[in-house]
Structure formats: structure tokens, C-alpha cells
Amino acid sequence: MLRILPFLALVLLLSGCGVDADQEMLCRRLIPAFDGGPVTGLSAQAIAEDRRVVRIDYRAGGQAHWIACRFAGTAMEEGRRTLAAVATDRTGWLREMRFAMLMQWLRIKPADAAVAGDRPERAGPTRWTPVLFLLQQVINAATVACVYGLLALGYTLVYAILGQINLAMGELTMLGAMMTAMAAAGLGMAGWAGWPPALLGVLALVMGFTAVQGWAMDRLVFRRLRGVRSHTPLIIAVGLSIAYQEGMRLLHGARDWWPAPVLTGRHELLSDGAFTVTALSAQFAILALTAGLYALLWGIIQRTAFGRAHRACTDDVAAAELVGVDVNRTVAATFAIGGGLAAAAGAVIALYYGGVNFFTGYLIGFKALAAAVVGGIGSVPGAMLGGALLGVVETFWSAYFALAYKDIVAFGLLALFLIYRPQGLLGQARGRGD
Prior knowledge:
- The protein is an alpha+beta fold and 434 residues long.
- The chain contains 14 helices and seven strands.
- It has two domains: 18-108; 129-420, Orthogonal Bundle (ABC transporter involved in vitamin B12 uptake, BtuC).
- Keywords: Amino-acid transport, Cell inner membrane, Cell membrane, Membrane, Signal, Transmembrane, Transmembrane helix, Transport.
């Protein structure tokens, strides 16, 4: 058995895949149906929220475009070569009649028609291929970890000071994602879609708006429930979550929003001829954004009057109030900061993954809460550590095992931590002052 284990590990490494080559090639063959001129700068990625969707980014006529193909199964399931739906940045998801016409066009189109930029035939796997694939998954996991980490910070800041979980925080992420998608559409019409200052302006606007939403949540709802020692605040949070979802659905409909891709430059880091480790410019930007926001938050908590007040309220709210700390102002500012961080996570989802809708914050919110609990809810470093751990688990499971069980594994991890280490990795088991 010991001799077989290394061989099984190698098989697992070789069996995982990022973007299925057959799915990518089929999706590329559809591009001439929408763009007749030369096509360059092609890059493919699988959508994290639905691995059945392959998205191809490309340039045609000097402009950036994308096409997304949804298949009946992932690379590890039946139906992986059966095309189920197609979307583009200009049409959205095609309606049934247009999709049927596209399928008819695909059957008529010669199978060997080439798209500029198609990948040449690659060499067979080498002994370094599994290592390079592993490194690629680490890079992919870093982006997912940033999303979970930013939202987990919002959860952990509020819990640290109140001992209550605001389940509506995920809907602030949804709000940030939807606003970013709509703003990105406006920038695209103005020709500023890829201009970094414009993107930073959108990020600041969205974070400011959701910060006000977070402040309003505390001022209008949670402040009135500050002394309640029942499940009422939790029930109110669930109600707020549903209200945000339904409000967004009624205002903007249930359709998905797919912003035009930004910072799509692809950088080849390592290669053995059979597999190339790549990273997008957007991934570097996401890592820099997350690191900057975390460093800013750490500095605020450690070196400002608000940070001292927050730490005092975290230790004992009653004692902090006795020594002159304005608890109401501190809690309201905490809700605002948490809302801004949630919006940053939503902006990353919208601009990097796409496909946002009124339901985007539901599952993401619960997963970020799982990350906060695993890392130690109430601990700022623990929130980032939990996000990193959950991102690694999800990404590696998706790459090496059956994708359908990804969420079961994520929430199973939460259950194990709640059973065997309720305080999380960096949390502390302690009582709270009244």
C-alpha cells in the first residue's frame, strides 16, 4: 500500500484540470459567429461559481470582448462536450431561438476553421507538470481567498464588538457587486472600462455607498436591539437579507450581469512545455487591493482613537462605556467599515468572475462566515487566515476531486471546527462583559 500511495497522488495531480481543452476549443469556434475580423489575445478561464461555464476573453477590432459557454457538465462529468447556453458581452445569454440558430451555424461551419491564437499542440506531461499544476491552483486559490477574507473581516469586526452575527453582510457584497457591474457598463460606454483611475473611483464610490448602508443598519435597526439577549437580532438580520435580495430583484430583475473584463493581460510565470503557470493582471490587482485594505484596517485598529475604542468595546462594552468611550459611535463606525469591506469583495466578484445577480451574496456570505469562524471570529488576522484556508480547500477540491461536493466540504469544515475548536484557529475562548 505504501508503494501505491505515491502513484495515486501522481494520478490525482494529473487528473485535475483548470479549463477543459475540448470545452475551450468548442467555445473558441463560436467567436467568428459574433466577430468576423481578426481575433487576438485569447485567454480562457472557468467561472468559479459555476465550473460548467467557460469564458473566453479576446480582442477584435481593437476592442476587448468575451464569450461564455455553459456546458451540460464539467470536465469531470457527463455532458462536458454538450453546449447548453452561450452568452457574450453584447447580448447576454442568448434566447432559445438565437441559440438554436447558433447551433445550426456551428454544424454548418467547417470543423477545422481556425481562430487566430489557437493553441499549438503541446508536448506530453513531464515530471514537473504536477508541480506546476499545483502552483497554478495556489495562484487561483489566492484570488478566492481574497473575496472570502474581505467579507469575513466585515463579519468578524461586528461580532468582536457586539457578539452578534450580521447575516445581512452578504447582501452588502451583492449590493457592491451589482453596483460595480452597472458602473462598469457605464465606463464601457464611455470608453474608460480599462482605465485604472476610473476603476478605483468606482471602487471608492461603491465602498462608500455600502458603508452608509452598514451605518444605517446599525443606526435604524441593531442599535435598538443592543440590549436584547434573545435570537431577535439574528432573525432581524435574516429579514434584512431577504429584503435586500427582493428589493434588488424587483429593481433590476433576476438576470445575470456580466461586466466587460478588465486587466486581462496574461503573464506566463513557469512552463515545462506541457503546462504553463499563468496569472492575470487582475489577479495581481486583487492581491494588491486586499493587502492594502488589510494593512489600512490593521493600522486603523492599532493606531487610531477609533481602534482603541473598538478594542476597548471588544474587551468589555460596559467597562468601555464607563471610562467615556462613545459605544454607539464606535459600533456604527464598525458597521460602516464592515460594509465597505463587503463591497470591495463584491467589486472583485463582479469584475473578475462576472455573472452577478440579486442572489450573489447568499452563498458567498455563508462561506465568508464559515471562513470567519474557522479563523476565529472576532480576530482580524483570523478572518484573513480563515479566508485563505477556505479558498485553498475549495480550489484544490475543485481541481482534484468531484466539483459537486465542493460546498459540502466547505461547510463540513465549518462543522468540524465548531465541534472540536469552537473558538477557531486564532480566536480565544472567553466570556463577554454585560
